[in-house]
Write a structure and sequence with these properties.
This is AAA domain-containing protein. It comes from Paraburkholderia madseniana. GO terms for molecular function: ATP binding; DNA binding. Pfam families: AAA_lid_14, HTH_8, Sigma54_activat. The protein has 403 residues and is an alpha/beta fold. 46% of the residues lie in helices and 10% in strands. It has 18 helices and eleven strands. The protein has a five-stranded parallel β-sheet. β6 and β7 form a beta hairpin. The radius of gyration is 27 Å and the shape is flat. Bound molecules: adenosine-5'-triphosphate and magnesium ion (MG). Magnesium ion binds next to α5.
Length: 403
């Protein structure tokens, strides 16, 4: 099947204020959480409603953000259709899901889709970026706190788990969660209850947890930065979101979708894409994935002087090309010498003149510094004569030519 699936997004079961935004300050988050409680959870105990009045009202997110929050999802490439099928299979269960993918591949969109296809679709979907809080704040953000729990806790405040009760909690950038908090999260997932900071009373919660990461969590586990037991708890279902370069069949359907969205926003008439521009879109490696494509199309519409996007209207970054080529062709360095080889390949990519001399000077200079600027030791370290070392250090202006 090669048709484009256009899925209506679920009707907003929450006001936009119920969703955590990556760029918010803790104060804004606290304010929005207060609003969430006042608008979304009318049956919850009166604590939040009486003690935390709504401090501000947020306009619709669509009018605030420059990026359009997709109201439809485009799935056209066979890889995306396979992912869609997998989402359909796993969504109805209550299993925790780990969504893995590079930045901008649509991990949050996938998480929302899992929620929308689950029995919890009428409950809240709460998205929290674990990297957005300091270590001291993250506990009260996730689990809430009682009045007086810490300096500045002037009133009781429910956390994200309570806000997501009956629905889904999406923990974005889970790899950024401090180790101390990982233990507590594990306990909550096991016990299905939370204890607010400063309280002894446990509150039962009914939340499905979806987590996302753009790093290889297994590597973080191996390096001791992420708890293995928590990894297995979260990774009951594993959804890998492919990069845009690995699903080229989505590029043009997505481009057309973004053209429609942005031209409507900008009040333009119908806009087409020239065949050369299509080719340029298909040939790019898209290191920023769908978000990059969205930005490229938005910009192209702003600068386009006709009713058809041309090659020249598409401004793509070039830094991803070599990175993508390297990622595809080179294994990750496992020894320092392999790392050096990788670094050399980067330099060869740029192909500036005089390269050998620059590399040689760098080797001498680094060895010289490493040996606390002792020439005899540095020469011994490199296995060369002191005279050769001296000559190179003079050339690199590290020492003076005069004795
Ligand atoms: N299948 C899709 N159809 C339409 N738009 C999409 C699709 N997937 C992603 N997008 C859009 O691309 C942008 C990036 O998606 P999203 O925020 O879900 O990515 P992400 O993987 O969570 O990114 P990050 O790693 O930076 O948090 C959003 O504007 C989203 O609406
Ligand atoms: Mg995200």
């Amino acid at each position: 099947m090669n048709s484009t699936y256009v899925l209506p997004d679920a009707p907003a079961s929450l006001p936009p204020s119920a969703e955590a935004s990556v760029t918010e300050t803790p104060l804004q988050i606290a304010q929005r959480l207060a609003i969430t409680f006042n608008h979304v959870l009318p049956d919850r105990p009166a604590i939040a409603r009486t003690e935390v009045p709504p401090l501000l009202t947020m306009p619709d997110k669509r009018t605030l953000t420059t990026s359009i929050r997709a109201t439809v999802q485009v799935f056209s490439d066979p890889q995306s259709l396979a992912l869609l099928e997998r989402i359909r299979m796993v969504a109805p269960s209550d299993a925790n899901v780990l969504v893995i993918g590079e930045t901008g591949t649509g991990k949050e969109l996938v998480a929302r889709h899992v929620h929308n296809l689950s029995a919890r679709k009428d409950g809240p979907f709460v998205a929290v970026n674990c990297g957005a809080f300091s270590e001291s704040l993250v506990e009260s953000e996730l689990f809430g706190h009682e009045k007086g729990a810490f300096t500045g806790a002037f009133c009781a405040k429910p956390g994200w788990f309570e806000a997501a009760n009956g629905g889904t909690l999406f923990l974005d950038e889970i790899g950024d969660l401090p180790l101390s908090m990982q233990v507590k999260l594990l306990r909550v997932l096991q016990e299905r209850e939370i204890v607010r900071l400063g309280s002894r009373r446990s509150i039962p919660i009914d939340v499905r947890v979806l987590a996302a990461t753009n790093v290889h969590l297994q590597d973080a586990v191996a390096a001791g930065h992420f708890r293995e037991d928590l990894f297995y708890r979260l990774n009951v279902v594993h959804l890998a979101v492919p990069t845009l370069r690995d699903r080229p069949g989505d590029i043009l359907p997505l481009a057309r979708y973004f053209i429609e969205e942005y031209r409507n926003r900008l009040g333009y008439g119908p806009v087409d894409i020239e065949p050369r521009a299509e080719r340029k879109l298909l040939e790019h490696s898209w290191p920023g994935n769908i978000r990059e494509l969205e930005n490229v199309i938005h910009y192209a519409l702003l600068v386009c002087r006709s009713d058809s996007l041309g090659e020249g209207d598409l401004q793509m970054s070039s830094f991803g090309i070599h990175a993508a080529r390297r990622a595809a062709s080179e294994p990750v360095a496992s020894t320092p010498l392999e790392g050096l080889e990788g670094a050399l390949r980067h330099l060869f990519d740029r192909a500036e003149g005089n390269l050998f001399e620059q590399i040689e000077d760098t080797v001498m200079r680094v060895a010289f510094d490493f040996c606390n600027r002792n020439q005899i030791q540095a020469a011994r370290l490199l296995g060369i004569s002191r005279n050769v070392l001296r000559a190179r250090l003079i050339r690199a202006k590290q020492i003076s030519a005069q004795k």
